[in-house]
Amino acid sequence: MPFSWRELTGMSLNTLFHGYTMSYNPFPHCNSQDLPAVDENSIVWEITNLGMLDLSPAHKLELPHKYSIPEWIPHATQALILSPLAKINEEDVSQLGLRVYVIIAKACEVIECEQKTLAAVPPGLSLEPDPSCPANQHQHCREAWTQFWWQKVAWQLLHPTKPLPLSAVIDYIADQPHPSGLRVACREIYVGEIIEGGGLHVKSAIINGATGAIQDYFALL
Prior knowledge:
221 residues; mainly alpha; disordered N terminus
Protein backbone atom coordinates (compact mmCIF):
# COMPACT_ATOMS: atom_id res chain seq x y z
CA MET A 1 0.00 0.00 0.00
CA PRO A 2 1.58 3.36 -0.98
CA PHE A 3 2.62 5.76 1.77
CA SER A 4 1.13 9.24 1.70
CA TRP A 5 3.60 12.11 1.85
CA ARG A 6 2.40 12.91 5.36
CA GLU A 7 3.17 9.35 6.42
CA LEU A 8 6.56 9.50 4.74
CA THR A 9 7.60 12.77 6.35
CA GLY A 10 6.39 11.69 9.79
CA MET A 11 7.58 8.10 9.68
CA SER A 12 10.29 6.89 12.01
CA LEU A 13 13.26 5.09 10.55
CA ASN A 14 12.37 1.94 12.49
CA THR A 15 8.97 1.87 10.81
CA LEU A 16 10.25 2.70 7.33
CA PHE A 17 13.03 0.16 7.43
CA HIS A 18 11.36 -2.59 9.44
CA GLY A 19 12.60 -5.90 8.12
CA TYR A 20 15.70 -4.47 6.45
CA THR A 21 18.67 -5.38 8.61
CA MET A 22 21.40 -5.45 5.96
CA SER A 23 24.30 -3.27 7.05
CA TYR A 24 25.38 -0.48 4.76
CA ASN A 25 28.89 -0.80 3.32
CA PRO A 26 29.86 2.18 1.13
CA PHE A 27 32.76 0.22 -0.36
CA PRO A 28 31.41 -3.33 -0.82
CA HIS A 29 34.47 -4.53 -2.70
CA CYS A 30 37.02 -3.24 -0.20
CA ASN A 31 37.89 -4.06 3.36
CA SER A 32 39.33 -1.67 5.92
CA GLN A 33 42.88 -2.85 5.16
CA ASP A 34 42.49 -1.78 1.54
CA LEU A 35 41.66 1.85 2.41
CA PRO A 36 44.55 4.29 2.80
CA ALA A 37 44.99 6.25 5.99
CA VAL A 38 44.58 10.00 5.47
CA ASP A 39 45.26 13.02 7.62
CA GLU A 40 43.01 16.04 8.04
CA ASN A 41 44.62 18.01 5.20
CA SER A 42 44.29 15.15 2.75
CA ILE A 43 40.62 14.75 3.69
CA VAL A 44 40.00 18.42 2.91
CA TRP A 45 41.84 17.99 -0.40
CA GLU A 46 39.76 14.91 -1.27
CA ILE A 47 36.45 16.64 -0.48
CA THR A 48 37.40 19.67 -2.60
CA ASN A 49 38.41 17.55 -5.55
CA LEU A 50 35.44 15.20 -5.26
CA GLY A 51 33.18 18.18 -5.76
CA MET A 52 34.88 18.86 -9.10
CA LEU A 53 34.11 15.39 -10.43
CA ASP A 54 31.04 14.56 -12.49
CA LEU A 55 29.68 12.02 -10.02
CA SER A 56 26.29 10.35 -10.39
CA PRO A 57 23.62 11.19 -7.80
CA ALA A 58 23.89 7.65 -6.41
CA HIS A 59 27.65 8.05 -6.01
CA LYS A 60 27.10 11.40 -4.30
CA LEU A 61 24.84 9.72 -1.76
CA GLU A 62 27.45 7.03 -1.17
CA LEU A 63 30.12 9.48 0.03
CA PRO A 64 28.62 12.10 2.41
CA HIS A 65 28.85 10.10 5.62
CA LYS A 66 32.44 9.07 4.80
CA TYR A 67 33.73 12.52 3.96
CA SER A 68 31.36 14.61 6.11
CA ILE A 69 29.78 16.47 3.19
CA PRO A 70 26.08 16.51 4.14
CA GLU A 71 25.39 19.35 1.70
CA TRP A 72 25.46 16.77 -1.09
CA ILE A 73 22.51 14.85 0.32
CA PRO A 74 19.56 17.14 -0.64
CA HIS A 75 20.64 17.70 -4.25
CA ALA A 76 21.52 14.04 -4.87
CA THR A 77 18.28 12.85 -3.24
CA GLN A 78 16.19 15.22 -5.35
CA ALA A 79 17.97 14.19 -8.55
CA LEU A 80 17.28 10.50 -7.88
CA ILE A 81 13.62 11.04 -6.95
CA LEU A 82 12.91 13.20 -9.98
CA SER A 83 14.49 10.68 -12.34
CA PRO A 84 12.57 7.58 -13.45
CA LEU A 85 13.15 4.83 -10.93
CA ALA A 86 13.94 2.44 -13.79
CA LYS A 87 17.12 4.44 -14.50
CA ILE A 88 18.63 3.37 -11.17
CA ASN A 89 20.85 0.47 -12.19
CA GLU A 90 22.51 -2.31 -10.21
CA GLU A 91 25.66 -0.27 -9.63
CA ASP A 92 23.57 2.63 -8.29
CA VAL A 93 21.80 0.32 -5.85
CA SER A 94 25.15 -1.03 -4.68
CA GLN A 95 26.37 2.51 -4.05
CA LEU A 96 23.17 3.64 -2.33
CA GLY A 97 22.72 0.61 -0.11
CA LEU A 98 19.39 -1.08 0.49
CA ARG A 99 18.02 1.34 3.05
CA VAL A 100 18.67 4.48 1.03
CA TYR A 101 17.30 2.80 -2.09
CA VAL A 102 14.09 1.96 -0.21
CA ILE A 103 13.66 5.62 0.77
CA ILE A 104 14.15 6.76 -2.84
CA ALA A 105 11.79 4.10 -4.20
CA LYS A 106 9.06 4.92 -1.66
CA ALA A 107 9.31 8.64 -2.41
CA CYS A 108 8.96 7.94 -6.16
CA GLU A 109 5.95 5.73 -5.43
CA VAL A 110 4.23 8.41 -3.34
CA ILE A 111 4.78 11.10 -5.98
CA GLU A 112 3.38 8.83 -8.69
CA CYS A 113 0.35 8.12 -6.51
CA GLU A 114 -0.25 11.84 -5.97
CA GLN A 115 -0.07 12.43 -9.75
CA LYS A 116 -2.65 9.72 -10.40
CA THR A 117 -4.90 10.91 -7.58
CA LEU A 118 -5.09 14.44 -8.96
CA ALA A 119 -5.56 13.24 -12.53
CA ALA A 120 -8.31 10.73 -11.68
CA VAL A 121 -11.21 13.15 -11.08
CA PRO A 122 -11.71 16.68 -12.47
CA PRO A 123 -11.53 18.95 -9.38
CA GLY A 124 -14.48 21.03 -8.27
CA LEU A 125 -17.37 19.15 -9.89
CA SER A 126 -19.18 18.85 -6.56
CA LEU A 127 -18.99 22.60 -5.85
CA GLU A 128 -21.88 24.99 -6.24
CA PRO A 129 -21.82 27.06 -9.45
CA ASP A 130 -20.81 30.68 -9.46
CA PRO A 131 -23.84 32.89 -8.66
CA SER A 132 -23.61 34.40 -12.15
CA CYS A 133 -24.00 30.96 -13.75
CA PRO A 134 -27.64 29.89 -14.30
CA ALA A 135 -28.54 26.35 -13.31
CA ASN A 136 -29.32 25.35 -16.89
CA GLN A 137 -25.91 26.66 -18.00
CA HIS A 138 -23.85 25.08 -15.24
CA GLN A 139 -24.25 21.56 -16.61
CA HIS A 140 -22.52 22.77 -19.75
CA CYS A 141 -19.74 24.22 -17.58
CA ARG A 142 -19.30 20.88 -15.83
CA GLU A 143 -19.16 19.00 -19.12
CA ALA A 144 -16.72 21.48 -20.68
CA TRP A 145 -14.44 21.36 -17.62
CA THR A 146 -14.54 17.56 -17.52
CA GLN A 147 -13.68 17.30 -21.20
CA PHE A 148 -10.86 19.85 -20.83
CA TRP A 149 -9.47 18.05 -17.79
CA TRP A 150 -9.39 14.63 -19.40
CA GLN A 151 -8.14 15.72 -22.79
CA LYS A 152 -5.54 18.20 -21.53
CA VAL A 153 -4.56 18.14 -17.86
CA ALA A 154 -4.99 14.49 -16.91
CA TRP A 155 -3.19 13.37 -20.06
CA GLN A 156 -0.23 15.55 -19.12
CA LEU A 157 -0.22 14.39 -15.50
CA LEU A 158 -0.18 10.75 -16.60
CA HIS A 159 2.36 11.12 -19.39
CA PRO A 160 4.51 7.94 -19.24
CA THR A 161 7.93 9.60 -19.63
CA LYS A 162 7.52 13.32 -18.89
CA PRO A 163 4.54 13.82 -16.56
CA LEU A 164 3.47 17.38 -15.87
CA PRO A 165 4.83 18.41 -12.45
CA LEU A 166 2.09 19.03 -9.90
CA SER A 167 3.49 22.49 -9.22
CA ALA A 168 3.04 23.38 -12.92
CA VAL A 169 -0.66 22.45 -13.22
CA ILE A 170 -2.06 25.95 -12.68
CA ASP A 171 0.34 27.55 -15.17
CA TYR A 172 -0.46 24.82 -17.70
CA ILE A 173 -4.20 25.47 -17.37
CA ALA A 174 -3.65 29.23 -17.75
CA ASP A 175 -1.67 28.68 -20.96
CA GLN A 176 -4.43 26.65 -22.63
CA PRO A 177 -7.20 28.19 -24.75
CA HIS A 178 -10.34 28.76 -22.70
CA PRO A 179 -12.65 25.73 -23.09
CA SER A 180 -15.76 26.37 -25.14
CA GLY A 181 -18.94 26.31 -23.06
CA LEU A 182 -17.18 27.00 -19.75
CA ARG A 183 -17.90 30.28 -18.04
CA VAL A 184 -14.83 32.11 -16.80
CA ALA A 185 -16.29 32.43 -13.30
CA CYS A 186 -16.86 28.67 -13.04
CA ARG A 187 -13.39 27.99 -14.36
CA GLU A 188 -11.98 30.15 -11.57
CA ILE A 189 -13.91 28.11 -9.01
CA TYR A 190 -12.51 24.87 -10.40
CA VAL A 191 -8.95 26.23 -10.44
CA GLY A 192 -9.41 27.55 -6.91
CA GLU A 193 -10.37 24.06 -5.77
CA ILE A 194 -7.08 22.71 -7.16
CA ILE A 195 -5.09 25.33 -5.26
CA GLU A 196 -6.99 24.89 -2.00
CA GLY A 197 -6.57 21.13 -2.20
CA GLY A 198 -2.96 21.61 -1.14
CA GLY A 199 -1.51 18.91 -3.38
CA LEU A 200 0.36 21.07 -5.89
CA HIS A 201 3.50 21.36 -3.78
CA VAL A 202 3.38 17.90 -2.27
CA LYS A 203 6.41 16.81 -4.33
CA SER A 204 8.66 19.23 -2.43
CA ALA A 205 7.38 17.87 0.87
CA ILE A 206 8.03 14.29 -0.25
CA ILE A 207 11.57 15.13 -1.35
CA ASN A 208 12.25 16.97 1.91
CA GLY A 209 10.91 14.01 3.87
CA ALA A 210 13.11 11.58 1.96
CA THR A 211 16.14 13.83 2.42
CA GLY A 212 15.52 14.00 6.16
CA ALA A 213 15.16 10.21 6.40
CA ILE A 214 18.47 9.70 4.60
CA GLN A 215 20.20 12.27 6.80
CA ASP A 216 18.85 10.58 9.92
CA TYR A 217 20.02 7.19 8.68
CA PHE A 218 23.54 8.44 7.89
CA ALA A 219 23.68 9.98 11.38
CA LEU A 220 23.24 6.48 12.81
CA LEU A 221 26.19 5.00 10.91
